[in-house]
Amino acid sequence: MPRPIQATISLDSLRHNLARARSAAAGARVWAVVKANAYGHGVERVFPALRGADGFALLDLAEAETLRALGWGGPILLLEGCFALEDLSTCERLNLWHVVHDPAQIHWLASRRKPRAHRVFLKLNSGMNRLGFTPDQYRVAWQRLHELPAVGAVSHMTHFATADAEPGIAEALERFESAVDGLPGERSLCNSAALLRYGTQARERREDPDAVLGDWVRPGIALYGGSPTGAHADAQRWELRPTMSLLTRIIGVQNVEAGAAVGYGATFRAERPMRIGVAAVGYADGYPRHAPTGTPIVVDGVRTRVVGRVSMDMVMVDLDPVRAAGRAADIGSPVLCWGRHLDSELGIDEVAEPSGTLGYELMCALARRVPVQVV
């Protein structure tokens, strides 16, 4: 039989999370962000559930080609814009919208002769200092784009650096409003964190949410059930459902004496006589290499913990709580690494946090060797 590990992608959960994003958007149109192969889920796999969005946002031209081949005729936005002059031909052929964040991209557009072929989103650097024009440069860039024969509509865009934490978005939002004041064009500001924290907050306070939400919102991680703040409690508060589950089984059992070492480097020693299970999952499957002892994992429906160092193909788990709950805790017992299985749920951010990372990374790191089933 094949190695007993499998990931599942839940289309119902994707649809639910898209509906949650649309509810928080309060009438703004919704980009479904599917960059990084839909956060490791697979563009082809998630498309049936996310085609209810108003558009798709991504990075790679190959992903855009895939969406067009799947039959999507609506808007597609290149979030990092074009990487070279020749990409503009592909944008024209596939009717792609694209972000402009650098003078070089304006220069490329100036060389095009196809009238009004390009719909662009001009990006403001509102404090991230990653991509975008500074507030002092922004109006000059907008005017230059507005004058180009190949450019049709020019929309406005920024990306908040601290939407998921303090001090929040107030300062960046003020920079954005000042930069675009009086300029026509649609606006796109919110990623998942800004949408769920501030869009929802504005509605709860009965304030006008338009200043934050704009015309387009860009949920990414929220569509896949991960917390945009990294805190699993927030995913629960916003009623997000996990879309990716990783399930394996116990393939070996060791009964070890108190003081015995478990795993590479002898980083864990049994505090008492223990029953240790060996689960068929490791960092070559996408399980976090640095998950420490104590990282939660579910065996036979019972929460327990990882012990010792994660190996390439295996991870060791404490089976004593499982046996104490009256479960078999033996070879063949199901192991939920994250997601949902039967009545059990383990948030992906709960697994990521002890390793000092986010659920984003675990989703994107799912290895090609892991079979994936769409349910």
Overview of the structural elements:
It is a single chain. The protein has 375 residues and is an alpha/beta fold. It has two domains: 216 residues, Alpha-Beta Barrel (TIM Barrel); 131 residues, Lyase, Ornithine Decarboxylase, Chain A, domain 1. The radius of gyration is 24 Å and the shape is elongated.
Looking at this protein, list some descriptive labels.
375 residues, alpha/beta, TIM Barrel, Lyase, Ornithine Decarboxylase, Chain A, domain 1, 8-stranded parallel sheet, 6-stranded antiparallel β-barrel, 14 helices, 31% helix, 24% strand
C-alpha-based Rg, rounded:
24 Å
Distance between the termini: 22 Å
**How would you state the average pLDDT, rounded?**
96
Annotated CATH topology of the largest domain: TIM Barrel
Number of domains: 2
Low-confidence stretches: none
Instruction: Tell me the CATH superfamily of the largest domain.
Output: Alanine racemase
Specify the number of helices.
14
Strand segment count: 19
**Helix content range of the residues, please?**
25-40%
- What general outline do the C-alpha atoms trace? elongated
CATH architecture of the largest domain: Alpha-Beta Barrel
Q: Determine the strand fraction and express it as a percent band.
A: 15-25%
- How would you sum up the major sheet? 8 strands, parallel
Strand order in space, largest sheet: 8-7-6-5-4-3-2-9
**Structural class of the secondary elements?**
alpha/beta
Identify the CATH class of the largest domain. Answer: Alpha Beta
